[in-house]
Protein: Calcium-transporting ATPase
Organism: Digitaria exilis
Amino acid sequence: MHGAGHARPGPLPRIPFVPGSARAPSPGGGVPWPRSGLGTALRRPKSPHSRRSLCFGPLAAGDLSKRAHRVRFSHPVARFSMIRVPLLLVWQEKLRVDVLVSKSTLQSEYGVSLQSEYVAPEDVKAAGFQISADELASIVESRDTRKLTVHGDLGGIADKLATSLTDGINTSESSLNQRQGVYGENKFTESEARSLWEFVWEALQDATLLILIACALVSLVVGIATEGWPKGAHDGIGIFTSILLVVSVTATSNYQQSLQFRDLDKEKRKIFVQVTRNGLRQRMMIDDLLPGDVVHLVVGDQVPADGLFISGYSVLINESSLTGESEPVVVNEDNPFLLSGTKVLDGSCKMLVTAVGMRTQWGKLMAAITESGDDETPLQVKLNGVANIIGNIGLFFAFLTFVVLSQGLVSQKYLDGLLLSWSGDDVLEILEHFAVAVTIIVVAVPEGLPLAVTLSLAFAMKKMMNDKALVRQLAACETMGSATVICSDKTGTLTTNRMSVVKACACGNTMEVNNPPAPSNISSELSETALEILLESIFNNTAGEVVMDQDGRPQILGTPTEVALLDFALLIGGDFKEKRQQTKIVKVEPFNSTKKRMSTILELPGGGYRAHCKGASEVVLAACDKFIDARGSIVYLDKTTTKKLNSITETFSKEALRTLCLAYRELEDDFSLDEQIPLEGYTCIGIVGIKDPVRPGVRQSVETCRSAGIEVQMITGDNINTAKAIARECGILTEDGLAVEGPEFREKNPKELFELIPKMQVLARSSPLDKHTLVKHLRTKFNEVVAVTGDGTNDAPALREADIGLAMGIAGTEVAKESADVVILDDNFSTIVTVAKWGRSVYVNIQKFVQFQLTVNIVALLVNFSSACFTGDAPLTAVQLLWVNMIMDTLGALALATEPPDDNLMKKSPVGRTGKFITKVMWRNTFGQSVFQFAVMWYLQTQGKYLFGLEGPDADTVLNTVIFNTFVFCQVFNEISSRDMEEINVLKGLPDNSIFMGILVGTIIFQFIIVQFLGDFADTTPLTQLQWLVSVLFGLLGMPIAAAIKLIPMEPHEGN
């Protein structure tokens, strides 16, 4: 308002009406005067005649926050031609001042900003942007429409971000670096990896080790005090060394395992989205997103960053992961805010990224949550219970051993009347007895059980990643080994998911489409009208898109079905861009597995609307009452034509083709876009048959499952004939198997379902609810362990209901993947069989280790306890038992829990839900080997001196060393025998297992060092060659004994 040189003012701004501040309308029809601001300056004149010289027009309806920044006056200007300039200048100046007063009043009283007061920081401006990262993040996080308006709404934000809402950001390296420098990257701050020393400290917290450390300290102090240095320190240093060795191996193992889990967590976060940059649509990882990027979202996607809605249709967002509210949120122009971590339930849209990484609400939430693999699996929980029982038994025997060993000394003291007089040697003897008792507890407590589970699972997870299976939940590894039923999708799992239209029926003609001589051959068989409407339907009623790649060649984006249809349309001479420009899409109902159709409404250039529909042939054909005949004329469908079209659909289906019907209808002039898209009155354009070849190797994989006792059921949305053809080709549908359609399945009562489900092998035209119902019945009524595959958002309930949810890595939505336990990265059914094999391997490996450890536990307890009772001495000292403990716990777990799977695993029946973990076969092997080892130990204990001709003061030490050495070699060879619980040939594949061989060789070398060179610390003495030979032969004898024990008949999988 500084135009003082003009004779008359221009149009004056209109003051918006502020709700709640107005008085009642005056009789003269004018607008009531505000109580402050401009109402004070331009007070209502007292004369009714002068009031007409300046009046305010009525406030147009609208939101104050959207209008307040553009204040305008409405008034008659003709009367101003008679006002002299000086008076006008004074009036204008007064008006300018009071506009500022009004602005201040609106801001203070109503919280409304009339213009943007935001000033971008200098570093942001220097980088070429006009808004800071924090300001940008606050808009979406707080859903601040006022602040969004201040910045110029969506277009203003795009300008300030130096991006285009159609072409995206500039991809020059310098531009991307500047953008990342200002706004950050789309990564969450990870918690620091725990160091090795933290794991060492954690390993030292074990209660039994702390007791042994105390024993070692007392032994060290008393020993030095009584025998001097260094002789008196040997026992204490020996125990310390053993503890250090145990802690080092345990900590290193746990540290390596934690690194594996971090790598797996990174794999879980590898999510790809469609992004437009430099006008080119491309697939990229969400980690590479930057503010200003234009992201394309469809049903099932996870919103990868905070952003604003640009355009789209029927977008429903599940924000429960952030807000806890299960009610979906509608996102559109009026509510444009999209939050990172939420899920797209329906619709599709384009989004402008505004905040990434730790500036998003999801990022801040993730900062407070650390994901790790520390959760215990069901098997770990079960084995912890077993460990506690064994530990309590060990505690009882340890107490008895301590009492038996110490009662002789205490009795002698009592008889001599010296019960209160204790020498250093007496204290050391009691301390040694106590250390032996504590060490028995150490040996008895099988802390290696949970370790073995974790090691086996971590090893299996890493190997499964190489086999294209990403394990999201540790428990899935072990559960998959018990699976008895696999409910598999067809498309993309049993088939390649590389679809192409091979047959089409239009205008009454059925055409072969695959490899035609020329596109004109197909288009010539269609009338011009039919061809135009067919192309319009395919190019507009689609969730796919045809874009140009960097080389200028057309690239089709979308689901395999959409790609097949668009490729067909291009093949017959269609132009995607041209067709899309001819009409305007005004409403879309995306395809989902419940409706089994997709509908779109187009606004035609000449006015009016047209609806296009495509989907399952029987669904769309049922909505048609007309079709396009061979002349291109629209005629009514009679019974004969309907029967012919249904026959064509059936013929396509029997050839294992997936059929889709395309139709359209003109909408009435009074149709409103708020109404539902009509479900009837359509004109059939044509039917297409889409081929999706069966994956190589699927038939063999299905046969492998059947031989392994795993039933395979196919669940598909295709019609019954297509489903049967594919199922037969895959080997799923047998002569005595049934194929059932979803509607028929739904109508069955519980009793009928109980009779039907065991025979059912194919469920066609199924809905997500059908899949969920089937899985629930299999689990609860038939007690099956069920694995289910899924790729869509609607599959999430079934994936959660199943014992093992298997999501597809390529075709699967992020919602499906998050609901699953395992992600099949190559969408291949053969990979699912591999997962089952690894699951069985995990289960069996842990069983092998438990069998091995139980044997060591039983023998160690019996040897020391019986010896203490009958001889008053324990042949295995604390240091020796600690070494044995490490052999059977950490090293045993490493050796047996990392055995790779063999083909024999898939020739046995599954464990199932009610199977016992410790089987009769395991008890047979454990007791047989324990009896043998105890007999050897007892023979050496009683006849060893005679056998080796031992005499003199060192005879006991030599004998105890021989017993210790023999005991260790018994465990070494028992470890080899434990590689298979039923097969006699346990050497098969042994040289190929580098971990197992390394542990065996390392154990033998270290045992030699302990016996020959560490006698002062381990209470051993060097042995002769004969004594070494006898020790090794006694241990080796355990292998044929184990083989003979395996010949005792047992039911190998008696419900396991």
User: Anything to note?
Assistant: Confidence is low (pLDDT under 50) at residues 1-91, 99-115, 370-374. The chain is about 50% helix and 15% strand. The CA atoms of residues 709 and 909 lie 5 Å apart.
